[in-house]
Design goal:
single chain; mainly alpha; 17 helices; transmembrane helix; UPF0718; transmembrane; membrane
């Protein structure tokens, strides 16, 4: 009896909280209340909602693609589609990222599902860091935002393509495709062997998987959005502008800025363009490349679904590779 009552009770609480949130958001004007709310908290609230509302559509896209993969894509299909040679498989994985309009908000559930279906770890990493930048929507937004400096748009795509392969290769050397998910393949095999899909049909099964994954991913998105909004509100940006012209410090600062802001890759080019008069072109590239590969909300999701040792190594590899590549790019082309 408790097995039925407790989940229903949790569902009612969740629905009640969602209803309360929308009621307060749509019908309550906090400025009309008798007590004064500090302006910083109002800024945190605005930032939090903007990040959340910006990310939710792409999270929905990601979980539906993930659910379709769970329902329709078999392990044998993935094994047949990828080259057997681990090194040769890096190139098609990077090219695959250029096809799908998926940002960093949606990529984590998709990569996790593909890995559970049998995709090698290093191929999943290539897709994880490459797809949020290489897709056509991001290129179009970057091209438009930097219409007077088109070399930045082309450099962003070129660096993302090359670095995704380099990062995937390094991860392959470090982990040799060992299982770094917090759920084992056996769990997925058991899940896949249930008769649920046959009973309810593939369409309903897809919707069930998508809803479960959305609520599972959503709680970590909310945590990341809240932390990112706190940083955006209380970070002293005058220090950043003072150091923005240093060729070695400014890329590191903008990488940190991209990590903290946690902007969607479809929109971050316009934010980067606003810093054009303060920061070097190399540091703007660092912001545009590093942020979609790794940001605050993504990190929380990664720690939730991957082993901590892998996530720590992934963060270190991405940070070092991106920073060194930006320094080299500045020396050769700028």
């Amino acid at each position: 009896m408790n097995k039925i009552v407790i989940p229903l009770f949790r569902e009612f609480i969740a629905l009640g909280l969602i209803g309360l949130f929308f009621y307060l958001f749509l019908f309550v004007d906090f400025q009309d209340l008798s007590f004064n709310i500090p302006s910083e908290l109002l800024t945190v609230n605005t930032m939090f909602l903007s990040i959340l509302l910006e990310a939710i559509p792409f999270i929905l896209l990601g979980v539906f693609v993930s659910a379709l993969i769970q329902t329709y894509v078999s392990e044998d299909l993935i094994k047949r589609a990828l080259p057997r040679n681990a090194i040769l498989a890096l190139l098609p994985a990077a090219l695959l990222g250029a096809i799908f309009p998926i940002c960093e908000c949606a990529i984590v559930p998709i990569v996790r599902r593909l890995m559970k279906k049998g995709m090698p770890l290093h191929i999943g990493v290539v897709f994880l860091v490459g797809a949020p930048i290489l897709n056509p929507v991001v290129f179009a937004s970057t091209y438009y935002a930097f219409s007077s400096e088109l070399h930045i748009a082309y450099a962003r795509m070129g660096l993302a393509f090359v670095l995704s392969i380099v990062i995937g290769f390094i991860i392959y050397l470090l982990f040799k495709n060992s299982n770094q998910l917090k759920w084992t393949k056996e769990d997925v095999v058991v899940e896949g062997n249930t008769n649920q899909e046959e009973k309810v049909g593939k369409l309903k099964s897809t919707l069930f998987h998508a809803s479960d994954e959305f609520f599972e991913m959503g709680k970590f998105l909310i945590m990341g959005a809240l932390i990112a909004s706190l940083f955006q509100t209380f970070l002293d940006r005058t220090l950043l502008t003072e150091l923005g012209t240093n060729e070695f410090l400014s890329p590191a600062l903008m990488m940190g800025f991209g990590y903290i802001l946690s902007l969607c890759s479809e929109a971050d080019a316009f934010v980067a363009a606003s810093f054009g008069g303060t920061f070097t072109a190399g540091s703007l590239l660092a912001f545009l490349v590093y942020g979609p590969m790794l940001d605050l909300k993504n990190t929380i999701m990664l720690f939730a679904f991957f082993k901590a040792r892998f996530v720590a190594a992934f963060i270190l590899v991405v940070t070092i590779v991106v920073y060194i590549s930006i320094i080299i790019y500045q020396f050769l082309f700028l």
